[in-house]
Amino acid sequence: MKTYICGHRNPDVDSVTSAYALADLRRRTGMADVEAICAGRLPDKARWVFEHFGVAPVRAKRDVYVRVRHLIDKNLPMIDSSSSLVDALRKLESIGESSLPVRDSEGKFIGMLSPARLLNLFLSRGDLTIPVGRAPLHHCAQTLLESDPVHDIRLATLRNSHNHFPVVDENGVLMGTLLKRAFAEEPPFRMILVDHNETDQGIPGLDEVPVIEVVDHHRISFAATKEPIRYTADVVGSTCTLVAKMFRATGERPTRETAGILIAGIVADTLLFQSPTTTDDDRAMCTWLEKICGETAESIMAGMSSVESPLQSMTAEQAIASDAKTYHEGGMRFVLAQIEETNMALFHQHMPELSAAMETAMRQKGLDFCALMVTDPVRGSSELLYCGAEAVRRALPYRKSAEGTLLMPGVLSRKKQLLPEVLAALA
Ligand SMILES: [Mn+2]
Q1: Which class is domain 70-184?
Q2: How buried is residue 18: exposed, middle or buried, by Cβ count under 10 Å (0-12/13-18/19+)?
Q3: 268: CA distance to ligand 1 center in Å?
Q4: Structure pTM?
Q5: What H or E segment, with its residue span, contains residue 354?
Q6: What is the fold of 310-426?
Q7: What is the pLDDT of residue 148?
Q8: How far is Cα 269 from Cα 379, in angstroms, rounded to an integer?
Q9: What would the pLDDT profile of 326-336 be if each residue is shown by its tens digit?
Q10: What distance in angstroms lies between residue 270's CA and the mean position of ligand 1's atoms?
Q11: Disulfide: which of 72, 108, 127, 379 matches 172 by Cβ 3.0-4.6 Å?
Q12: Residue of 65, 24, 57, 25 lying closest to 41 (CA atoms)
């Protein structure tokens, strides 16, 4: 069965690189069909890392919804309209099915062949040598589109009196048959989560698929599981640090490329060990990985930093959505977004569009407030652009700048520094 390894939505470098490296480790330790994916757009800095080390980047995937095409019964044949009716009926009989879909010479679905419908023909003509295409076919009430999410069609299909449903693509080309009993089967893939554990922060569709493993360094808000799962969590600066420790614990030595990709995650999340989330484990793993990789943490950080500033390459909407986390706390719904930007003057120039985009996002998502934390990793401080609930803003311990932002000297971590202040302001 296929296993996807995926970080959080609005992925950052750590969530993409840790997924890549863990897929590498899981493949070596015997997992056959495993693929690292990225929940949405691959961050530019992560793209640089994969290009720099000459490996294919993880695939961006919008969701992991189980779709109709995943449930097609691969053992059931399709009948060509040109084949003889008697042959087709023998086929039905031999596989023990009561109906099968028929396609024309272009592969398009034209109806279901079902012996019950043929009784009249047989009684009146007694001749079954005609082609299937000239026999009365049954036009069942429900044809399914291969791209439909299963949750959208499940109820209607279960209520339908038929058992066999033809599946077509958007051009009407027949893809196969879905049997009602497929809904009772296990989902066709499963998930390993890295760098997050809250379903709300995961790739859409996550709640429909079993999670077999979590590797994470965030607060735990994971649902109760039916079966034991592998759960690796620790208070470290980066998920890549945990993956590096797992390589060591299993006696596997990462390749030069995987070592470099792990370093990228560690330095991106710890801002080259300046962030207060940094631990000795992050430094120790990085030192080990540098020896294998042959490149220093500083040079990999410098390479990633050379990627254009987000405010230059993105629209205001993209900038606030690129790393945004939604929270529900203290009866309020809010978004804390973060970008890294070394050019604060550029940020101040873009404030009007950013504020407008935040106001729009608040209306669309029904938020009480929204804040964009612009972090300068070089100077080691941040500024906050805030929209919405005035009382919360007033309760935050940050001084207003001349430009109207909130100054956060020495603040680098949304999780460890900003979020606790926001939660305190809500209390
Ligand atoms: Mn992380």
Answers
A1: alpha beta
A2: buried
A3: 9
A4: 0.72
A5: helix 344-365
A6: Diaminopimelate Epimerase; Chain A, domain 1 (3.10.310)
A7: 95
A8: 16
A9: 999 989 999 99
A10: 9
A11: 108
A12: 57
